[in-house]
Design goal:
The complex is a heterodimer of chains A (115) and B (109). Chain A is mostly beta strands. Helices cover 0% and strands 49% of the residues of chain A. Chain A is built from no helices and eleven strands. In chain A, the strands form two sheets. In chain A, strands 2, 4, 5, 6, 9, 10 and 11 form a seven-stranded mixed beta sheet that branches. In chain A, strands 1-3-8-7 form a four-stranded antiparallel beta sheet, with no helix packed on it. The N and C termini of chain A lie far apart (33 Å). Chain B has no helices and nine strands. Chain B has strands at residues 9-13, 18-23, 31-38, 45-50, 55-56, 61-64, 70-75, 84-92, 103-108. In chain B, strands 1-9-8-3-4 form a five-stranded mixed beta sheet, with no helix packed on it. Chain B starts with 8 loop residues before the first strand and ends with a strand. The chains are: A mainly beta (115), B mainly beta (109). The interface between A and B is medium-sized, with 25 and 22 residues.
Chain lengths: 115, 109
């Protein structure tokens, strides 16, 4: 399968611990996005990269959150000092800047439960 | 990007066409209309998109009104596996997506 891959799919952590999620985009996609989704809500935009450059960050991305895409391929999203309110599904997506409409393709998400 | 309005929920009988409406009255000329769906606990799945013309693919048809202020996603023969939340998004190509709360479609046997 050559879709967007996310790891781990599920993570349970204690409050105060750090967690890291990894995303592998579709090969050759130069844009990579992170979203967060809580129960009953649509996905909320967090940040996106074009190649290795982080071009936009939502105000939802507090200073406990950091995202990187060091070589313009895979990306990591780290949450430090997790809080119960961080419990959500974290979605990664990728796209090409060329082509009709720049369609974004999503991964299956990484579920985080903070206890 | 322009905002969209969708009904919160709809039902459709299995085997019948499901017609999901979306209003986007403030859409501008360079904004595309996208449809995604999300089956419980999975990532959003791309369905179809269009700019001005009606579009059809193996999953669905997209009908955009002439003034582009509204659109309809048509699933021609709904199955139980089409039960999902459907999101209509209007976006300038290259911008990120902003999701609303979508329409929860239930296909009834």
């Amino acid at each position: 399968d050559t879709g967007v891959s996310q790891d781990p799919r599920h993570k349970i952590t204690k409050r105060g611990q750090n967690v890291t999620f990894r995303c592998d985009p579709i090969s050759e996609h130069n844009r990579l996005y992170w979203y967060r989704q809580t129960l009953g809500q649509g996905p909320e935009f967090l940040t996106y990269f074009q190649n290795e450059a982080q071009l936009e960050k939502s105000r939802l991305l507090s200073d406990r959150f950091s995202a990187e895409r060091p070589k313009g391929s895979f990306s990591t999203l780290e949450i430090q000092r997790t809080e119960q309110g961080d419990s959500a599904m974290y979605l990664c997506a990728s796209s090409l800047t060329q082509g009709s409409g720049n369609t974004i393709y999503f991964g299956e998400g990484s579920w985080l439960t903070v206890v | 990007d322009a905002k969209t309005t969708q009904p919160p929920s709809m039902d459709c009988a299995e085997g019948r066409a499901a017609n999901l409406p979306c209003n986007h009255s403030t859409i501008s000329g360079n904004e595309y209309v996208y449809w995604y769906r999300q089956i419980h606990s999975q990532g959003p799945q791309y369905i179809i998109h269009g700019l001005k013309n009606n579009e059809t693919n193996e999953m669905a048809s997209l009908i955009i009104t002439e003034d582009r202020k509204s659109s309809t996603l048509i699933l021609p023969h709904a199955t139980l596996r089409d039960t999902a939340v459907y999101y209509c998004i209007v976006r300038v190509a290259g911008n990120q997506f902003y999701f609303g709360t979508g329409t929860s479609l239930t296909v009834i046997p």
